[in-house]
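Hi all, posting the design record for the shared folder.

TITLE: backbone redesign
STEP: 1 of 1
STRUCTURE INPUT:
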């Protein structure tokens, strides 16, 4: 595959792939057999998607993946629920935070602003129900608008937690959202799902399937080899 706008002789090769005239991105640095295996697996799955598309139900959250028969469902791209808490919205940090996820290369598939009901907040933080900070946490999260988002991409759940940083902002590394933008545990600006099961639960809690878009960025070829 030749990337659009790139001549075969230009320098878009992996660091160890210096053969002149090669047009393929040699990344990740795996043996050629392994790279080919991944490529053919991707192509086979894409062909299956096209084959099954006409006879599958419409209107699911992610038709491109979610409508596949269960045997192919492991293909579904990973999604995480991310929320900018009321302090982040009040402080005008929405653009800054959205930009960090966009620049990383993840895909935004859901976005809305709402002031959560107590019921929603209590379900969302239900795992902390018995903790002493629970009541204050629910008061805080229902105190104003929250920007709720779903981001998609390989490894997005763990990666988003890294982008977000440690729960206590003073312990969060500089360069992370909490490390750069917050100082207090009760005003730590952003939430991110901490595991695949939590992500699935939280996405279903905050969004209806119709509120999520399945789309392919025009520059996808520049984001991931495939
Ligand atoms: P989040 O769920 O909001 O993304 O935060 P997290 O995973 O980093 O931390 P978690 O343990 O799930 O705690 C949820 C939120 O509760 C507040 N908290 N306060 N005062 C305290 O000791 C305390 N501990 C937790 C924080 O706002 C935390 O983000
Ligand atoms: Mg948490």
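Okay, here is what came back for every position:
SEQUENCE:
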């Amino acid at each position: 595959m030749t990337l659009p706008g790139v001549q075969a002789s230009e320098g878009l090769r992996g660091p160890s792939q210096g053969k002149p005239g090669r047009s393929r991105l040699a990344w990740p640095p795996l043996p050629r057999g392994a790279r080919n295996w991944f490529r053919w697996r991707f192509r086979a799955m894409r062909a299956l998607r096209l084959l099954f598309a006409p006879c599958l139900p419409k209107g699911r959250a992610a038709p491109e993946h979610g409508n596949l028969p269960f045997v192919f469902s492991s293909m579904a791209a990973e999604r995480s629920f991310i929320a900018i808490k009321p302090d982040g919205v009040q402080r005008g940090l929405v653009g800054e935070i959205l930009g960090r996820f966009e620049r990383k290369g993840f895909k935004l598939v859901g976005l809305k602003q709402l002031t959560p009901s107590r019921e929603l907040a209590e379900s969302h933080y239900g795992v902390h129900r018995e903790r002493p900070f629970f009541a204050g946490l629910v008061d805080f999260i229902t105190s104003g608008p929250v920007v709720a988002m779903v981001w998609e991409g390989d490894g997005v759940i763990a990666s988003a937690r890294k982008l977000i940083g440690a729960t206590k902002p003073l312990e969060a590394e500089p360069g992370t959202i909490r490390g750069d933008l917050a100082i207090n545990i009760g005003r730590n600006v952003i939430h991110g799902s901490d595991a695949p099961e939590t992500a699935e639960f939280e996405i279903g809690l905050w969004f209806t399937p119709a509120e999520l878009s399945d789309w392919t960025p025009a520059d996808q070829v520049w984001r991931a080899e495939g």
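COMMENT: The pocket of magnesium ion (ligand 2) is lined by residues 194 (CB under 6 Å).
Let me know if anyone wants the other runs.
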